[in-house]
Design a protein that fits this description.
The complex is a heterotrimer of chains A (about 270), B (about 270) and C (about 325). Chain A has one domain. In chain A, strands 1-2 form a two-stranded antiparallel ribbon. Chain A has 12 helices and 2 strands. Chain A has about 270 residues and is an all-alpha fold. The mean pLDDT of chain A is about 85. Chain B is built from 11 helices and no strands. Chain B has helices spanning about 5-25, 30-55, 65-85, 90-95, 110-115, 125-140, 145-175, 180-190, 205-215, 220-230, 235-265. The radius of gyration of chain B is 19 Å and the shape is globular. Chain B starts with 5 loop residues before the first helix and ends with a helix. The model of chain B has no long low-confidence stretch (mean pLDDT about 85). In chain C, helix 7 (about 160-170) packs parallel to helix 8. Chain C starts with a strand and ends with a helix. The model of chain C has no long low-confidence stretch (mean pLDDT about 85). Classes of the chains: A mainly alpha (about 270), B mainly alpha (about 270), C alpha/beta (about 325). Chains in contact: A-B, A-C, B-C. The interface of A and B includes residues 22, 34, 178 and 200 of A.
Amino acid sequence: MNPKKYLTLTRMGIMESLQFRMSTVIIFVGNLLYLIVVYFLWKAIYASSGQEVVNGMTFSDTLIYLVLATALFNFMEMYTVWQIGRAIQSGSIVLYLLKPMEIRRYIFMEYSGNFIVNFFATLFPTFIVVNIVTHGAVPLGLNLLYFVVSVVIAVMINYNIDFFVGTICLYTESIWGINIMKQVIVLLLSGATIPLAFFPESIRNIVNWLPFQSIYNTPLTLLLGKTADIKDVAVILGTQLFWFLATYAVSKLFWKISLPQITVNGG
Amino acid sequence: MKRKGLLFYARLYCKILAQDLKSKMSYRADFIISTIGMIFTNIAGFISFWILFRNFSTINGWGYYEMLFLYGFSLVSLTPAQCFFDNNWSLRQYVYTGDFIKYCFRPINLFFYYQSEVFDIKGLGQLAFGLAMIIFSWIKLGLGFTPLMLIKLVIFLITASLVMIALQTAAAATCFWIHNSFFVLDLAFRFKDYAKYPITIFSKVFRFVFTFIMPIAFIAYYPSLVILRPDEVELLSWLSPLFGIAFFYIAYRIWMYGAMKYSGTGS
Amino acid sequence: MAPVIDIKNITKEFKVLNRREGLAGSIKDLFSRDYKIVKAVDNITMSIEQGEIVGYLGPNGAGKSTTIKMMTGVLEPTSGEILVNGKLPYKNRSKNAQNIGVVFGQRSQLWWALPLVESFKLLKDIYQISDEQYDSMMKLYQSLVDIEPLLHKPVRQMSLGQRTLSDILAAFLHDPKIVFLDEPTIGLDVSMKAKIRTLIHALNKEKNTTVILTTHDMGDVDALCRRIVIIDKGKMLYDNDISHLKGFFGSYRTLKIRVDGDLRKESEVIAKEFPALKVGADEEWISVLVDEEKISVMDVLTKLQKERRIRDMQLEEISTEDVIKKIYEEGVE
């Protein structure tokens, strides 16, 4: 395996994402406005409730959680489903299959440049701003390391799910419908829009048995330092790793089974 | 040559619409999956809403059913943008490939011709959800019923719908200037989720922003006050139909300007 | 009679962004951009009469589509005057559209998922075509091509040839004064090309429609156009009859011979013998481009025969393609 060919893709990805000055600004402004809405909404919610702590979370806990969840969302957003879906519909999927690299890896490496840009453009600055504004509400210790490890696994779980859903497009003509279902399920059940702590007990029990919470809830919980015990951390990361392996296996298997569909459709 | 009045366009729209529905039926799987996806989105939205209100019974003096009314109102007023202006989502693609030029050679209004090509039936699911919420909360709130209220509701819903149409149209039009304008459109699409919250939760500055710059407050908050709290209707509420029309007109001009500017350079 | 298209000294300028190269360049582009002005069309004048078929030629990026966009009213010229049917097209885009038809060889303007007849019906409404006119057009189409099997076929299921044919029929449906055809035969097989050319010719004869044809296929030009206009880099290179074109560079003919031995080596020897002539070789033939005003083909042949045994020979008149190629490469001088 030659690392250079992967790095070339990474570099191209960085260049492409920088090419569009306007959209970089727009994404930034958009997220800022989004966070303003989130801020006022939860401020009003907490003010109306008359309580300092709801479901074990204070207003600033909730806010930090949601701000970082948003940053994480923007960091991880990949549009893989669209990419695979379009490639299937136009028949250009065959071109991917001809590349001297497994399609799963190829698409991931194409995106990896984005990850680097996004890290410096969104995730890192958000983190700094949050910590300055909250006077260091996020502890700076081992939790940062756990967080980074966890995010890497989360990105890959997210990608596996995306790839799985993208594969479904081999069977259906619909990309929009498939993608929106995925997005809605992932965002809701991963705790990206509302922290899982606010979910009713019964729903939370179900969510705990699904891979989605590993994408947002796990890294954020680790970052916010709610779990200090190394044993707990190991269990949490272990669970996440399990979900990575499980989603990887399932999505790989599904792709393998589905591949003949391409030849059936005539590409 | 005969003059092309409103009647001409109305009749033409119906004919194109009928043809579009015919062709939709030839992609049945996509239609069904997209509809399910749309229903999913609405259910998930409602679940988020419900989870929030399980924890907090009021937000800033707005009770559960009042909030539900706002939510329903926003869904209904978002429907026309979804149903009649869905082709905005493809604009980027047409512009990118140069296929957009084909719309420029017909002796009818360019904007009309472009938008008429697609009617999105799945938006009707959203309409049903929204109407159900309005009716349900209307009964629960005991607002009473007079024909005048119904007329008000219809007028304010229609003009409110122009706001989202305007936002979406203006956002889509950005593709005439910048490359990956998908983010802008996606942003406008995400923002509609915040139309359902009362604007009073925001600070003065952002009340201004969401009223005049990103006018999401006109999608549900201002117009629904007329029905919901007839005793404390603001001036802006009464003016909201005018604002709706004005926003739509501005967005239309932007779109047309971009289209004419683009079609020269592209392809 | 006044010309249908009357263009005087039009120029169109565009602002083009200079993108910088490489990673550092991308980052710089993020903060500053510099533009340069490009003249896509530079001081072009021409006038076209009703019923003419004009071949509008030029290499890629010559400014053809920019000119056409100005004629169709999509684009406003930077300077100069353009009148289509006596009106300014960009001021009356909608009205102008009523009198023109446009076909792009690669882009169908028909409703993709619908049977052709449904597209026709929509066009009938859009262009407000009367029932009588519609019926008479359909009758005309029926007499020209076998349209019946196409009418009920969804456009997306058609072959490229059928689609192009349908697009051309759709463009003539409202009996426009001018039809713009942009590479109508691109990607088609030989027999379909012939069919399309026959159709265009017939429609032009029948309806006296002015046809502006842009193409890279000289077969189209030979079959259809009496007049051609050539532009390159925005500037007009040629505007005259096609017959005049061939004499434009002197009377050229190509002499092709086959001899024993390595053709390429031999061709180099011949090139030295006749420094004034253009000599080339492929697998089968050595070809010598002869300017008959300077030296006759017979003389060349006699001289060649003295030095070597010629096993076979052919004489080709210069094709439009060769002339055009020469114009693209060398300009008019």
